[in-house]
Specification:
698 residues; alpha+beta; Alpha-Beta Plaits; 4 domains; 27 strands
Length: 698
């Protein structure tokens, strides 16, 4: 996806009727407009793309053309030349090096169709040479040309005649110019340029498309494109000069370079310039023995502010943050906008020891945290923000710029995880942890692709009889064996892979319901399936559940969806509507881990729930901790008042079961009956339990 600066750059270069293009130091295309594409297509029959080089575009006999032209610009500086096209038109080519810290890193080329202008210049030159024979024709061209035209004496530069376009360009009246010299009028920004022009004409008699700076009457210095030829006026050596105001073209060229290397919103260097600066810095510090620090400053909760207050407010915040960061560091330090809400500060000259560099980076980081956290006045209202900063110290060994940025990014993520508005330093241990996480994510994606998951089932018992099971996902890793959910579910939630996993669990559970329905001893068993917040918030969640049930031919009355309190805290009305819709199809709902969240009784009673589930943390200490027992008793009483059954999870001992039964809770699951089992073992257990099942009387 192109960033904001690239979009502005493309819009700018596409707005001109001329062709634009730029190449890197290896003569490979970086940016170009449609006219550039058409020029290549029409003349060489090639569809161009970014990254293509001369060998991929030009025919073999002309493959050296680009290296010669672009190489000249990188070595000697800007120059102009002309190319005659296949259809006879003349294209004026302007080549300008792209400079970074004085070093040419590429070339920008600008092409303009000058066929008509060339013809006009040639016509005027011919007219001047035969002025006495074609005065009327010359005067027509002279007076109506949009280019400035002047006749001057060679020796002193005195103006003999100028046309209206010349006067318009410079802002003079005719009587202010004629019979005065260019030096008297102070027209040359650098008077030496006139002498260079005369010297060149003495050698070649003609000068085409020279680019010089001149001065208007109001003192403004601007660029012109000038052509000149020697003529004889009644025996007096003179010059015929044709010039065009080129200031807009030069401004556009400078704007293109500006957009390539600077962020248009904050005017800070952009990512491209940052990487180049990092390369240069790494080259120099590798030859010495100095330490540097890179600080990645990421605004906390910027997206929320941007979405709620509007992008124009977000832009104001970014501009103010850029000012505060710049004001908080030394002039010699480098500040850039990496993109979106991320800024980079590179600190140089921090000494020769890692500890000393870390101390100085800490001081700067704390200063930045304070600066960013001060209140902002945005569009007349006060707003607050904060930042998380990742810091890496480098210069100890040879590293790539992208590696340095990655280290700062890893440290910044740790600052976010630590609660935000804080700073963390990169360590190799962090890199190892990130690598391990990346490896686990890759394995998890492969697990989804190759179906490495299993469903385990834990019996749910009511008064001694098995009435259902909770379906629990397990990962059968090819090397690690069975992986418990707590090792991979958080990562799946974070990466969004939980959606695919959740779909698989739902489909597998519904298929099992249908299979159990065929056997008398299991036909009554229901299955409880845990639903993640991401799953439930899907717009098509209701349709997906109903489609899975229909495909499996499963009885919806035997499917129970387990929700957690946390997912009920947002968009309560939407949650209730979605639950009610599914409940109308006789699908059941259980509120999992009840008592650990912040459910409000005002809307809890509105939820179409079939069951409350006492969390295992209360059951575990129910015999030894009075508060756990009181909470369990309260939940059971609440369920009784609301006419809602209660089930306890994590029941491991007979004493816990009896205690809960005395409080009125007769449904439970836990190790007292069985740990979660694969399907074959679960079904064997069910058959065994059915043979010895004795209903409890307590």
């Amino acid at each position: 996806m192109r960033n904001h600066a690239e979009a502005n750059l493309l819009a700018l270069i596409e707005s001109t009727d001329d062709l634009w293009g730029s190449v890197d130091a290896n003569h490979r295309l970086l940016v170009f407009n449609k006219n550039f594409e058409r020029y290549i297509q029409q003349n060489f029959g090639v569809e161009v793309a970014e990254g293509m080089g001369p060998a991929e575009i030009l025919p073999p006999e002309r493959v050296e053309l680009w290296p010669r032209l672009f190489g000249r610009a990188m070595k000697e500086g800007a120059f102009r030349t002309e190319q005659k096209l296949i259809d006879g038109r003349i294209l004026e080519m302007s080549f300008h090096p792209i400079l970074m810290d004085g070093k040419a890193e590429g070339v920008t080329v600008y092409g303009k169709d000058v066929t008509e202008a060339k013809a006009a210049q040639e016509s005027m030159a011919a007219a001047a040479a035969a002025l006495s024979a074609s005065e009327e024709r010359y005067r027509t061209v002279f007076e109506t040309s949009l280019d400035g035209i002047a006749l001057t004496q060679i020796d002193d530069g005195r103006f003999v005649d100028v046309n209206p376009a010349f006067l318009h360009i410079f802002g003079y009246e005719r009587d202010e110019v004629v019979l005065r010299t260019s030096l008297e009028l102070n027209l040359w920004a650098d008077p030496r340029d006139r002498q260079k022009l005369v010297d060149q004409l003495n050698d070649t008699a003609v000068c085409n498309n020279s680019e010089v700076q001149l001065r208007r009457k109001n003192g403004q210095i601007f660029w012109v494109q000038m052509s000149a030829s020697k003529v004889d006026l009644n025996g007096i050596p003179s010059l015929l000069i044709v010039l065009r105001d080129n200031s807009e073209v030069r401004a556009a060229e400078e704007k293109i370079v500006d957009l390539e290397f600077f962020d248009p919103l904050t005017r800070l260097p952009n990512r491209q310039q940052l990487l180049e600066r990092l390369r240069q810095t790494l080259d120099s510090c590798n030859r010495g023995n100095r330490k540097l620090a890179l600080l990645l400053v990421d605004l906390d909760n910027f997206k929320t502010l941007n979405d709620t207050l509007g992008h124009h407010i977000g832009d104001q915040l970014l501009q103010e943050v850029a000012r505060r960061i710049t004001a908080s560091v030394r002039e010699t330090d480098f500040v850039a906008r990496l993109g979106s809400d991320e800024f980079i500060v590179m600190l140089d000259e921090l000494g020769e020891t890692h500890n000393h560099a870390a101390e100085q980076a800490t001081k700067v980081g704390e200063k930045l945290l304070t600066a960013v956290s001060r209140p902002y006045l945005l569009n007349g209202r006060e707003s607050l923000s904060s930042s998380s900063i990742g810091v890496t110290i480098f210069g100890d060994r040879r590293e790539e710029p992208t590696e340095i940025l990655q280290q700062a990014d890893i440290a910044m993520d740790q600052a976010k995880a630590a609660g935000r508005n804080t700073m963390r330093f990169f360590t190799p241990a962090l890199r190892d942890a990130v690598s391990a996480r990346a490896a686990l994510e890759e394995d998890l994606r492969e697990a989804i692709h190759s179906n490495q998951f299993l469903l385990y089932y834990q019996p749910q018992v009511y008064r001694g009889r098995t009435v259902g099971a909770e379906a629990l996902i397990r990962w059968k890793h090819p090397q690690r064996g069975i992986v418990a959910p707590d090792k991979f579910i958080p990562l799946a939630e974070e990466t969004g892979l939980i959606l695919q996993m959740g779909d698989w669990v739902l489909e597998t559970a519904c298929q099992q319901i249908a299979l159990w329905a065929r056997e008398k001893e299991t036909s009554h068993l229901s299955i409880a399936v845990n639903i993640s917040a991401r799953q439930f918030r899907q717009q098509e969640f209701e349709q997906k559940v109903l489609a899975v049930l229909k495909c499996a031919a499963a009885d919806p009355r035997l499917l129970k969806l387990e929700l957690t309190e946390s997912m009920l805290l947002e968009n309560v009305e939407e949650v209730i509507a979605k639950m009610a819709s599914l409940r109308s199809h006789e699908i059941g709902f259980s509120l999992d881990d009840f008592g650990t969240g912040y459910s409000s009784l005002s809307y809890l009673k509105r939820l179409p729930l079939d069951q409350l589930k006492i969390d295992r943390t209360f059951v575990r200490d129910i015999l030894t901790d009075a508060s756990s027992g009181a909470i369990a008793e309260t939940i059971i009483s609440l369920g009784r008042v609301m006419g809602m059954p209660v089930i306890a999870e994590g029941v491991e001992t007979e004493e816990q079961r009896v205690f809960l039964a005395r409080l009125g809770c007769h449904a439970y699951q836990g190790y007292l009956t069985s740990r979660p089992l694969p399907i074959d073992e679960f079904q064997s257990l069910i058959r065994a339990l059915e043979k010895v099942a004795v209903p409890y009387n307590d």
